[in-house]
Write a structure and sequence with these properties.
The structure is a single chain. With 456 residues, this protein is an all-alpha fold. It contains 15 helices and five strands.
């Protein structure tokens, strides 16, 4: 059992996973020892830096969420992957761990023997999805080995299929750099890119926003992010009242607390950017060894924050647009279903920012705004639809936040409810067909949809 927990912890740590992948690639390339060492340490340190920045962002968003709840008298369910997973581990710990390990193995097998050659490197998201699958399949009375095998196969398959679905959009975002999305908000990002391609004709990029010379400091993403967040924090602190904010600030002036927290948020974003650059500097060259020697033509699927450096203005535009979509969605769901899905700032920041980047890649500013707004609606509607299929977890005050969790959970839960276990087996057959058929339709050995795209 201790060995199982060790491997669970190992593959749940994206930093270690990225380092190991880089090491295998460099060994396959027969690199000298010192390059293997530095090339292994680079992605590990880079991801730890990214995680440190993300933690600063999360810690900064927590008091903002509380001030918004207090100031605007909002009560309800907050979608948050970390929160629902921590609750679930009390009753689903062994099942989640087992599905996670089996899912990683299936992902590697699928990458080796099919055209879905995407290796999913975001271990914590795999862990969240394993938790979702254990909850949904458990609510459908799957148990033991069957629960683990079915859950593990679905996890491994979706880890391979989801990057491929929108890889053409991802190539546009990265200017044809061979990276894929390894994050289970992917459908929201691809939908934002699709919407951008429809509504954004002629719309200039968010990164080409013209700024008067006296406002040129706003071109500095860290400074513009800081100013934007300071305004948001000040509005929230005024709405919540100084007495309440004092309970969050340990007695510090509420307005100084708001300003400092907004600045810390911007620092967190800057740390994320620095970590991303460090990851890409070492991971991409090392991955050539994996792609040529171990799993030919494989493509790394990485965390959504890795894409933030490709359109830094779109990050803030996407976050704000997604949050507005969340507020609109909250009102709609509240009126129609009597459930208030409070916009969780963590999922809206990370998924909204990425949706903004993808929307901008195909539709400029209009694509970023509208695409991220639709993502915000989905991050509200889908968690509400997910609650009934989570079994005992559906009665908690939180749920899974990102789009893919909602889509997979709702489909599996409802099909299983309507058709029983036979419905889940039919889904498995459909997934197998999706994985196998492309190999018969083409003799190409490259990863499906991983083709260069022309600039628009």
């Amino acid at each position: 059992m201790q060995i199982l927990y060790f491997f669970k912890d190992l593959i749940s740590e994206p930093a270690i996973l990225m380092g190991l992948i880089a090491m295998v690639g460099l060994i396959a390339l027969k690199s000298p020892g010192h390059k293997i060492f530095t090339g292994t340490m680079g992605p590990i340190l880079g991801y730890l830096m990214l995680s440190a920045g993300a933690n600063v962002i999360v810690q900064s968003l927590d008091p903002l969420s509380k001030m918004i709840e207090k100031g605007f008298h909002i009560k309800g369910i907050v979608p948050n992957n970390e929160a629902i997973t921590s609750v679930a581990q009390e009753i689903l710990g062994v099942e989640t761990m087992s599905i996670l390990i089996v899912g990683l193995l299936f992902n590697l097998i699928i990458a080796r023997f099919t055209r879905y050659k995407y290796i999913f490197l975001t271990g914590h998201h795999s862990f969240f999805m394993a938790c979702l699958l254990s909850a949904v399949l458990g609510a459908l009375d799957f148990k033991g080995v069957w629960l683990v095998l079915i859950g593990g196969f679905i996890l491994g398959a979706w880890s391979s299929i989801s990057p491929a679905i929108g890889q053409r959009f991802t190539m546009r975002v990265t200017d044809n750099e061979e990276l894929a999305v390894g994050h289970f908000g992917s459908i929201g990002y691809y939908l934002a890119a699709f919407i951008g391609s429809i509504v954004g004709k002629g719309s200039p990029s968010t990164e080409d926003i013209e700024v008067n010379e006296k406002w040129s400091f706003l071109r500095n993403t860290t400074i513009s992010t800081a100013l934007t967040m300071i305004i948001i924090y000040l509005i929230a602190s005024i709405a919540a009242g100084s007495d309440y904010v004092a309970t969050l600030s340990d007695g510090k002036s509420p307005y100084l607390f708001a300003i400092l927290t907004g600045l810390k948020f911007a620092v967190g974003v800057a740390i994320v950017y620095a970590g991303v650059r460090m990851i890409l500097a070492d991971l991409i060259p090392a991955f050539q060894g994996i792609a040529t020697k171990v799993i030919p033509n494989s493509v790394p699927a990485v965390d959504c924050a890795v894409f933030f450096t490709f359109a830094q203005t779109a990050v803030i535009i996407g976050f704000l647009s997604s949050f507005v979509g969340g507020l609109v969605g909250m009102a709609i769901v509240g009126v129609t279903a009597g459930i208030f899905i409070i916009p969780g700032l963590v999922p809206h920041f990370f998924t909204g920012a990425t949706a903004g980047i993808f929307g901008n890649a195909t539709g400029g500013r209009r694509g970023a705004i509208i695409g991220a707004f639709v993502n915000g609606l989905l991050v509200t509607f889908l968690p509400a639809m997910l609650l009934p299929v989570l079994g005992d977890l559906g009665f908690k005050n939180t749920t899974f936040g990102d789009v893919d969790f909602g889509i997979l959970g709702v489909i599996l839960g409802n099909v299983g409810h309507w058709f029983g276990h036979i419905g889940i087996y039919i889904i498995l057959l459909i997934i197998i067909a999706i994985l196998v058929i492309p190999s018969f339709l083409s003799n190409s050995k490259t990863a499906i949809n991983n083709v260069e795209v022309e600039e628009q």
